[in-house]
Amino acid sequence: xxxxxxxxxxxxxxxxxxxxxxxxxxxxxxxxxxxxxxxxxxxxxxxxxxxxxxxxxxxxxxxxxxxxxxxxxxxxxxxxxxxxxxxxxxxxxxxxxxxxxxxxxxxxxxxxxxxxxxxxxxxxxxxxxxxxxxxxxxxxxxxxxxxxxxxxxxxxxxxxxxxxxxxxxxxxxxxxxxxxxxxxxxxxxxxxxxxxxxxxxxxxxxxxxxxxxxxxxxxxxxxxxxxxxxxxxxxxxxxxxxxxxxxxxxxxxxxxxxxxxxxxxxxxxxxxxxxxxxxxxxxxxxxxxxxxxxxxxxxxxxxxxxxxxxxxxxxxxxxxxxxxxxxxxxxxxxxxxxxxxxxxxxxxxxxxxxxxxxxxxxxxxxxxxxxxxxxxxxxxxxxxxxxxxxxxxxxxxxxxxxxxxxxxxxxxxxxxxxxxxxxxxxxxxxxxxxxxxxxxxxxxxxxxxxxxxxxxxxxxxxxxxxxxxxxxxxxxxxxxxxxxxxxxxxxxxxxx
Length: 496
Fold this sequence. Notes:
By secondary structure, the chain is α+β, with helices and mostly antiparallel strands. It is globular and about 70 Å long. The protein starts with 20 loop residues before the first helix and ends in a 7-residue tail after the last helix. The chain is about 45% helix and about 10% strand. The mean pLDDT is about 90. Helix 4 packs across helix 7. Strand 1 (about 40-45) and strand 2 (about 50) form a beta hairpin. The longest helix has 19 residues, at about 145-160.
C-alpha cells in the first residue's frame, strides 16, 4: 500500500549543517522546536538563555546572542530559562515530560483505578488546564480519551488471554456498564468484544465500518500503486503479502457496503495465532480510531467546511507496519511517486519473501540489515539513501531501536527518537508519526502539497513558507494529521 503523497519530500538534513546568525534568529523567532539542541538563544537584556522553541516573549534582535552549548551560555553570565528548561534538554532530561509519561504509564497499567479524567488530574498534581495542555502536546490526546483507550487495551488483552466474562472485564477496566464497553469497543475496533475474543481461532473476521466511512478514499489508498510487488487491488478485493508477528502471510480484504471481510492465509496452522495482529494492521489501514467527526466539526467552527466537503469521513490509511512507514519516508525523499514505487518494488523482490501468487512479503529489518549499500546501488538507490535505509534496519535488527514501541510512547519522545536517525529530518519525522505510528496532531512542514492546499483553501495569493504553514495549521490542533490529509486532497475529485 502506497503512503507517499504525490509531492516530493524535502531532503533529509545532515547532522547538522552550520547555521548562520540570521538563520538562528529566524528559527528562534518562529519558536521552531525542530532546532532545539542545535543552538541556544541568550537574551542579554534579561540574562536568560532559552531553547529555540521557547514561547516566552521575543526580545529585540540587538539583545540576542546565540550559543552552541549551554556551557557557553553560562560562561557568558546567563542563567537557564525556567519556562523551557534548556539545561534539562541539553542533558537529555525533561522533568515535566517524564512526569506526564509516568502518569500515563500508571493509567495504562491500571485503568480501572481511575474513575474519570478528573481522577487523572488529581493524581497528576497539575491543574486541569495545564494537564490538558500537556496531554495535547505530548500525547495528542485528552486525559479522557487516553483513559478510554487504556481501558479498551486492557479489555482486549484479557479477552485474548481468556480471563473472565465480559461483565467482569468491563467493571474491572473501569467501564460504567457492559453497554458502554460494547459501544466504545465496536466504534474503535469494528468488532464486538465477543468477536474479538474469537480471533484466537479461525482465519477470518468481518469489520463493521463507521457510518461516516468514505470507501472511495480507501479504494484510492489501496490502488495507488498498480505495479506493486507486494499487493493487488481489483474489483474491491485487496490482496497483500505482509508480515504478521514477524511471519509472512497473505492478507485479503473484501470491501462491501458498510463492512470489510478480512482473511489471513499462512503456512500450516499459524494463521490462527495471527488474527489479532491482522486485526491491528487492518484497523490501521482503515483508520478506525480516527475522530473524523470531531475534525469535521472543528472545520465547520472555523468557517472552513469546504475543506471536508464531500469527504468528512475520509481517514488516513496507515502503513502496514512502523518499519514500512520508516522505509517509505526515506525512499520517498526528493523523488517522484512512480519512481518511489519502483524502488519499493525492487527492494521487496531483493530482500522480501516470495509468496503464493507471485507477491513478495516486505523485507524484515533483519533482511535489510544483512545487505550492503552496494547491493542497492544497481536498483537505482542513491548511495546516501542506501546508507540511511540499511543503518536504520540495523538499529532495529540489533535491538537498539524498537520501532513498534514508538506507537505507545509520547509523541514528543517518539519524535525525538526518530529525529536522531540519519536520513530523517523534521518533514520525515512528522510523516512517519502521522502515516505509520498514527499520531493525531502532526504536520509534515515543508510539504508542497500541504502548502498548496492551504493556499487554495484560504485563497491566498502568495506561496506559503514553513513558518506560515505552521501558523495557519495550528488552528486545526489537535487533529492536524487529518487536516494534512484533507489539504492533500483539497480541490481533487472525490473518488467513488
